Amino acid sequence: MKISPVNYSPLCFKSKVRSVYSDGQAQWQENYISNGATKLYSNYTIFFREDLNDVSLRKRGKVRYTWDNFLKTAIEHFKDAPMVNTFDFGCSDGSEAYSLISGLIKNSNSNEAKKFFPVMAYDIDEYIISCAKNGEIEATYNDIDTIQDNLENYRLYFQKARNKEKSLNIFPYVIMPNDTIKRYVRFNVGDFCEKLDNVPKSNSLVLCRNFWPYMKMEDREIALNKLQNLDSSSLVVIGGYDDKAMIEEKLIARGFIKVAPCTFKKQDV
């Protein structure tokens, strides 16, 4: 997952619609003409991304979905583990890491949640890691609704402010994680395949979601072989976009079973 250097912007806004191309360009336009350059990856991410949804609730006359089943599955799976090694690869601006942290706290008591922390969050993109460390995450109206659906009282975890960048009306809000959750994540630049060497085979929760189709075929095989070294006490979580690379089928072929949406564990021997 090595890439060429890219041109960085001093602003961390609009990260969610940013894509990086093989010619070293970073672009924010959906209709960008790449002139033959291939897209290396996208920074697209949202809070509580829908591919882990399962449990529905009715709110304001509409059916809403939450991560509750996935989170309760993880909490139950690791109930006897004294500590959990939690990794979030391809973490982008931190939306997913903070969804995980706040969701774990909401769905368990504080002692149960704390054993999952800190979350070690990695991305190959220096720019997006600088955005994550900045602690201001752009948000749409849908982000706000989704956070409220999942957390009930989101003010326990986040502050919300109007986006002062008036031109960025697609992101009317800025979400800032409170210290109560911000202290539980460590953001660093890191390559997925390389950092997998640091993942303990036991009691590890590995989020590697929605970037597999951007990987080279040989890198996918390297990463899958390293994940295969995990034992049945660990969980691997992929994303819906990873269907394009048939990652679910490849995990199952390596002895994993599905235990929740996009969530897998090795079969007990």
Would you spell out the secondary-structure blueprint of this structure?
Layout lengths: L18 E3 L4 E2 L11 E4 L12 E5 L2 E5 L1 H10 L7 E5 L5 H13 L2 H5 L4 E5 L2 H9 L2 E3 L1 H11 L6 E5 L10 E5 L1 H4 L2 E5 L2 H4 L8 E5 L8 H11 L7 E3 L9 H7 L2 E5 L2 E4 L3
Parallel strand pairs: 6-7, 6-12, 7-11, 12-13
Antiparallel strand pairs: 1-2, 1-3, 4-5, 8-10, 9-10, 13-15, 14-15
Helix pairs in contact: 1-2
Summarize the structure.
By secondary structure, the chain is of the alpha/beta class. It is built from 9 helices and 15 strands.
Give structural notes.
The chain is an alpha/beta fold and 269 residues long. The protein has helices at residues 68-77, 95-107, 110-114, 126-134, 141-151, 179-182, 192-195, 217-227, 247-253, and strands spanning 19-21, 26-27, 39-42, 55-59, 62-66, 85-89, 119-123, 137-139, 158-162, 173-177, 185-189, 204-208, 235-237, 256-260, 263-266. The strands form four sheets. Strands 11-7-6-12-13-15-14 form a seven-stranded mixed β-sheet. Strands 2-1-3 form a three-stranded antiparallel β-sheet, with no helix packed on it. A three-stranded antiparallel β-sheet has the order 8-10-9. β1 and β2 (26-27) form a beta hairpin.
